[in-house]
Request: fold
Amino acid sequence: MEPDQVAEMDSRAISVAVVGHTNAGKTSMMRTLLRDAGFGQVAISPGTTRHVEGGSLLIQGEVALKLYDTPGLEDSIGLLEAIENIDFEEGRRRLQLFLEQLPEDTEFDQEAKVIRQLLEDDLIFYVIDCREPVLGKYRDELKIIAMAAKPVIPVLNFIQDDLSQVDAWKHSLADLGLHAVVEFDTVIFNFEDEKRLYQKMQALMASYHDLIQRLIDSRQRQWNEQIRAAQRAIAELMVNVTAYRQGLPSKQASNEVRDSLETKESWENKDSFHRLIRRAEEQSIRTMLNIFGFDEKDVKNEDLPITNGKWELDLFDPVNLKEFGLDAGSNAAKGAAVGVGIDAMTGGLTLGAAAALGAAAGFVWTAGRRYRDEITSKFTGNQFICVDENTLKVLWFRQVVLLKALEHRGHASESGINVAAVSDKKLPANWKNWMHTARQHPKWSSILTQDEEFFTREREKLVEDIVRSLGETGNVGDTVNADT
Reply:
């Protein structure tokens, strides 16, 4: 073949017929490759797919691989007999004559659709339910497929099942001269298996080597981006929930203040507080499901158990001090801290201590407007509630469980992911630092609104630290109690 002909072939999209016996997992494989839970129809009953349906894999918006899901081959024994009755030696031409001679009301209507697709496409994925024994009907299917004279990749499905007979199938396929076998479980997905599928294509289709390599590289980038997007969704959720707090009146507040706040906000807020936190988790779960091409029916979501904690501002947290231009160990910071400490001993924070902090930092107290509500609460007796640490731990574990499950969930999986099924109760090494930092910045939470101080360099650094930890293996601390 001339070089220009090779280049032309290499630039053309590859078409693949996905064929196999009824209920072998063809449509589920299509869904997994396309990352599309809505593709086609999946059911236990035979003959669910009645027509040829297609989907494409893209490289930078251009179609690289066309996949065609075909109806199941139900009567391969009778089909092979009918084809072999045609008096023509060449397999491909024999299939063409078989199609030409079929009557309109043929009993092989579904099989004819499969054969037409075999003749049109460049490559064949033969999907096998390897829980089934190697029966004669499957050998007949392979004989019919071989007549199309196209490269064939046998795809062993349901390999993780206890009834799997992988070795028996590999031996039988080898006897038929089919060695480019790929294990691709549509229940328990492994991205490396998908890569091996494309690599087998490279081995069988040398003229498309560069195109397939670009496809492999593109799919790897997409997979990495999916993982990172899901990790970021978790990081954003944790910062949003940890930083969030609501104000409540204390028992020391005046009756007038307490009555107005309790009737209009307090008791409503106690319920709405929990609803907002649960809604934030639900939104994060939906985001992660969408990233991996699943929907809400794939998750068994149990309400997040929430207990409230008491939120208090640490005015002299190193991160907060930095915002005022103070070093945590400086004499100015220590002096201001002493001033606040004296005020606390005399019954409460006064504006004198606030002014002392401003003077020590060398600028006007207006820079501290972000703490206005917290300082005012010292006079009104109001309190702030937040999500306590045990709840945050449970929330973290639930998201990690979901992420791990989605990374290995194939589209033939029928069991819902139980986010409450936490087994590994270990936290990242930086957990306490993350939570303390987020706690001190209520405006970093977007649960209700995004304040002008929401997008900060410090917040982004915290989010990226959490994302980085999710991407690292073994970066965990001590085992913790996640009970609430």
Summary: Residues 226-307+388-471 form one domain. The chain has three domains: 3-204, 226-307+388-471, 321-376.
